[in-house]
Amino acid sequence: MDYNKVSKDILQLVGGEENVQSVIHCMTRLRFNLYDNGKADRTKLENVPGVMGTNISGEQFQIIIGNDVPKVYKAMIANSGLSDAKAGQPSSQKKNVLAAIFDVISGVFTPILPAIAGAGMIKGIIALAVTFGWMSEKSQAHTILSAIGDGAFYFLPLLLAVSAARKFGSNPYVAAAIGAAILHPDLTALLASGKSISFIGLPVTAATYSSTVIPILLAIWIASYVEKWIDRITPTSLKLIFVPTFTLLIVVPVTLITVGPLGAIIGNYLSVGVNYLFQHAGLIAMILLAGTFSLIIMTGMHYALVPIMLNNIAQNGYDYLMPAMFLANMGQAGASFAVFLRSRNKKFKSLSLTTSITALMGITEPAMYGVNMRLKKPFVSALLGGAVGGAFYGITGVASYIVGGNAGLPGIPTFIGPTFVQAMIGLVIAFFAATIIAYLLGFEDIPSEEDEAPAKGEAAAGEIIHSPLKGEVKALSEVDDATFSGEVMGKGVAIEPEEGAAVSPVSGTITTVFQTKHAIGITSGSGAEIIIHIGIDTVKLNGEHFTVHVKEGDAVSPGDLLVSFDMEAIKKAGYQLITPVIVTNTDRYESIKPVKTSENVNVKEALLVLS
């Protein structure tokens, strides 16, 4: 993959650098906050080599890349003026409260996940070493390694403070100072002393802030407004001293008196609520969660559950949400493995095996978007496989005991605890349940290149392309668009339509339905790739006056209605209706000859002969 080219293409197709408020990446996705999501061309983005799909979650525009996303991100930052400095600029897009909350949680947690994942793995390794007697809990090595593993979690408010400040557009170092203040050893000891505590006559509620999430998020959110307000009223010459001083003096006491206890209470209730659900309806809850977690991952909102997972571990010592994510990932891996077993397409077979292994490692997007969703039935099988594993977990009460950032085989240490054996059995069940279901359900295989495209002058010899429109046939050279008249896209003819309906010219499959509805791509049963492009520059209508009657993947026969359009409205809007009918894989044929030229044609009449 040419990372420089891919990054430049992506940046251009999201509306250019001027449309980007901020961009970060997680393990598989570029996550944009755009000023206007409508300026991003999703159809063209999904055709960029290396892009597996796009998604809009809340107001965040996501581009799924897979394992190469860090390299694409690095190339994008290197080749543009984008940086973290743009992260706090306001977006012009309207968003609801729930979408805003999800966007904040995702934006705050994504940058710190590597630290949490690394620390979580170290804690898992320590637990494994102690369990098997490889290390004594009283050894100095244990003390040092425990500090490495616990550090990120104990001082989690510090990490979150910096990340949240960048998201809210405030000074990250002042935010870190706020986090450091509420974690100060002397203050921690005072809050834990059991004494009555007050600050200038106001009562301070005793609370524990280490390893917490919500208190610091609320504190930095308030700090972002306080800092901006102080900055606005402070003379320029005094900003350097006054703004951070008064921000700290206001926000830290407010956090200790009101925000911190409130955040701790909210966090406790979230943990209690989740645990109550699993304790009283554990079987049903785990089946539903494990069976639908892939859908949550598709939206990118699984990061919104991270605070609850962290609170569960901090408050109770165990968590039920992370195991469900493991099962969902095993389901995706199993379904993709079934495709590897059944597919006859050598290239797709190889892709299926590769993505299955990647999903086992906890990165599911390549399997999900590149294989399972593409074939539909395997994706359903993956959900069912996760649900079957969820039933086993629900019965046996499997939980995770360490927070890890990877829900795949490398993250297995997160299960080290009383239900470790059951956890391993459940992962195997989810994988093979999805494999068996996908294999038995079957799927419509992806044709190999040899199957889908005839050799030049052989299988396609004499193939007839029928007219999709009623109207007057014209040569492509008469089309007022150099792309068509110069046969850049391929050979064919144009039709000046008399009726506002286009039908299928062949028996085949719909391969492309343009988002703007003005063009349809079809692949015939013999391999001819045809585009029907209604009008010139009608893409600018953004779908207005067009109604599409098919979707990608539909099988069609000659005469099946594809798209209807309001001819008068389109003409009134100032656009020509002349419609090119192009064979885009022209190079596969010896000749493409019009049956009629400069005369009228009816739908389903012979239009082109391919040989």
TrEMBL record:
One of its GO terms (molecular function) is protein-phosphocysteine-trehalose phosphotransferase system transporter activity. Residues 103-457 form the PTS EIIC type-1 domain. InterPro entries: Dup_hybrid_motif, Glu_permease_IIB, PTrfase_EIIB_Cys, PTS_EIIA_1_perm, PTS_EIIC, PTS_EIIC_1, PTS_IIABC_b_glu, PTS_IIB_1. Pfam families: PTS_EIIA_1, PTS_EIIB, PTS_EIIC. The active site is at 26 (phosphocysteine intermediate). It is a multi-pass membrane protein. Residues 481-585 form the PTS EIIA type-1 domain. Its EC number is 2.7.1.-. The chain crosses the membrane at residues 112-132, 144-165, 199-226, 246-270, 282-305, 320-341, 379-403, 415-441. GO terms for biological process: phosphoenolpyruvate-dependent sugar phosphotransferase system; trehalose transport. It is found in: Cell membrane. GO terms for cellular component: plasma membrane. The keyword Transmembrane helix applies. Keywords: Cell membrane, Kinase, Membrane, Phosphotransferase system, Sugar transport, Transferase, Transmembrane, Transmembrane helix, Transport. Residues 4-86 form the PTS EIIB type-1 domain. It comes from the Bacteria. This is Beta-glucoside-specific PTS transporter subunit IIABC.
